[in-house]
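note to self: the first set is below, dont mix up w the second
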Amino acid sequence: MAILIKQASYVVRAADRVERETDVLIEDHRIAAVGQVAPAGIADLQVIDGRGRAVMPGLVNAHTHLYQNFLKGLSDDLGLVDWCNATLYPMSYAIHQAHWVHHDEACGYHWAILSALEMIRGGVTCCIDMNMNMDSVFRAWQDSGMRGVGAVALSDRWLPAPLRRDPEASRQEALLVARNWHGTHRRIETVLAPSTPFLCSKELLLWARDRAEKIGIGLQIHLAETRYEIEQVCQETGQTPIAYAYRLGLLKPGTTAVHCVHVTDDDIDLLAESGATVVHCPKSNLKLGSGIAPVPKMLARRVPVALAADGAASNDLLDMFEETRMAALLHKGVGEDPTAVTGRQAFRLATEGGARAAGIAAGTIDPGKLADLVVINLDQPHLVPLHDVINTLVYCARSSDVESTIIDGQLVMHNRELLTLDEDRVRHEAARFGSEFYRQGVEMWRGLA
């Protein structure tokens, strides 16, 4: 089916390109034309009235841990290490028991469906999920219409013994998932994700680098998130986490370096030289008390930057409108400089920056680009009067203003109705499953003490 968005009041083609009273034609899974379109000879054409609407590129959540959707609203008074012990590990143990021992992947399907519902409703058309990825996660993306990059997580140390697996078995399973899904589905891709230097031996980091290069996929890694990490890595290697990753050849185009909170000027120079994309997670870094990444410095040195919500346990939402607004406001306040990160820069990080991080031809509305778009209903009290559409979208818009979401040329939500799933059914099933699964995880974890 082709889609024509007719006479959109605003078509935000990019952060610095906005057109008025414009049509957007989508054919197959790509944008076919932008302008005054008079389609002829298209038999199966759905027309969407764009009057009173803004059409914009879909938002990209460039780093998350979707299993944490079962952990919302927990632990708002712990730093990263204590938070892992108290909040993450019970759930992780339950997941490992289900997956490794009972070979049951139902948990992955439920958390992936639940998170897809939230993101699609909020105008997110693609996410990068660093996870104990399973086939069931990708099946949920297929069913929901979500576009996703499965960042297959790897670690071989530091974790408590019950969460560890034979290192060779873990590597081979990760490799199998990455290979099986790489290039086999138009909306799904994989990367390898050595979690962070203090969770990964040097051997594992080099293994991930070499295998990713051999397969032809990218890498995602947490770097310089906390002072604890800085101390651990410096003590072991004599280098900052950024310098260590750079010298191991991990930082390069196709790598996403998540957080980069505690970085030096020399680190920023290495990031700029490497071509890696930094993924900024402002709300997660604030909730865990990790600090604030020097994003204005990075942008000034032309470091590519994307935005992400991180996991729902350290953010509680997968709301990229909120994340974009936070990215703009946070740095203005911290730097006492209203120009530190402008609305247009924040918008670019959430769209073009995210598309770069995910390695997809999206992020702007141009012919030939993937048709990952959202339609915003501008007829809302908090959106009028509308003086500058970019600033309005960044500082005023809410996820609930998303009226339609198009992913890969498929209308997955229209007039706020999910078209790919029975939303009430899958939401209630996931909610029941998640509550019981977390309860079981806590009980099992306590039983190990």
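second set (the one i keep forgetting abt)
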Amino acid sequence: MWDTIVLGSGIGGLTAAAALARCGQRVLVLEQHSVAGGLTQTFQRHDWTFATGVHYVSGVGLAAGPDGQFGRMLHWLTDGALQFALCSNPYDIVRLPGFEFGIEHPQAAFRAALQARFPAQQAAITAWFKQLDAASQSARSLLVMRGLPAWLAWGWRLWRGAEVRRFSEQTLAQALTGIDDPQLRAVLGARWGDYGAAPDTAPLLEHALVTGAYDNGAYYPVGGPARFAQTLLPVVEEAGGRVQLGADVKQIVVTHGRASAVVFEHQGTQHTEQGTRIVSAMGVTNTVACLDAQLASAWHDTVHALRPGLSYLALYLGFDGDIAAAGATAANVWIYESNDIGHVWQALADADAPGLFVSFPSLKDPSYTGKHTAEVVALCDAQPFKDWLHLPVGERPQEYVALKALIEQRMLAQFVRHFPALVPMLRFHELSTPVTQQHFVRSPDGAMYGVEMSAQRLGSDALDVRTPVPGLLLAGQDVSGPGIQAACMSGLLAAAAVEPSLLRRLGG
């Protein structure tokens, strides 16, 4: 009998498990992949080490109060073993045809740079940031509501619910209509890939929360993203817990109305482990799939009505040489082929990606000593891959292989056009598709950030930490939103629902 069983070793599950272990609990973590960490894991190809999903992290600086809360929490969880390096400043670069703009921190520097570059747009810039500040306050209220008991959440919704709904239902595209300069509009909206929703559906609330998180700086884990698992898992094990890799969860057992055990398959054999409670950080869709449909049927129906978000294609590049001297940067580069930055890549075989996100992780980590790498990301609809999403590696047909090869060459050629000086150093390339994402992290339809980021998602109480099934809690990005900081906080919220003493870690 475990004190708690955690399903999934992504950053939300790892945080929940480590926080409960710090409270003396014996925690079992079940992970279907052979490597822990979810999208914080890394992988090797020849002489290159590639990061899979961490491009920068916010909230881990030395700021006092809420702005440094996340960093203090991680320091406590890992005994200071997890360290971060400040990224370059600007930390993001928006590149449009014939135009480039660097986004700096703090917000005052960003605003000053905008006002200098767009002197005729002073009033619009001021109004934009005023609107973002109000939306950010609403976003914090939403996160509070996600973690509260039902009766308290009801009261909070009465108090702040109308404001939260207003900024949830207003899209980024609608908010940007107040900006009449197309380049300024593009700069302000360019980073929607950080939460995986195009401007015409993206809630302004989420845009404000995610982009505003970097106002105090962007950071990168020293030693690479794998350091999250490397520093959090020992905390679980030292408290008598265990991490079981290769554990494919099949069923969440409910006994006398309470979640009490988990059935999983490991190396072809079925196992059952019992726990006082279960924290699922494997996504809400995967969670309800492991429950009897007759249990909390209304919850099932609500979850099934939530659609998966956008997926993505990732091209991993390996270099041999000094890429910084040839124009690579530690800043992320958001490249758009026009000032209209709101398009998702649809015609994968017939046209270039309307936008690319380029990250050079090897330039961000001061401890990195290997050959340099890049990750090139394009958000896309998973529809072209729908027939292959659940096929094992050895059973994917030639049609999939051919489409993947075509996309890989197209993305490579597009990257080369934007970074021609890096071509002589390029030695390796490999493409990841929505099929890859679904296989390794079990994300429905290979979604980049789980459930679709929309007003429906933000307003749904089906994604609260406390589920309608007693003894079953949720963690992960479906609860709190995309990104490392939000997913971590969801794990702490789930742990605090079990151990209320942890609430002080949320107190700033």
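remember for set 2: The first helix runs from residue 11 to 22.
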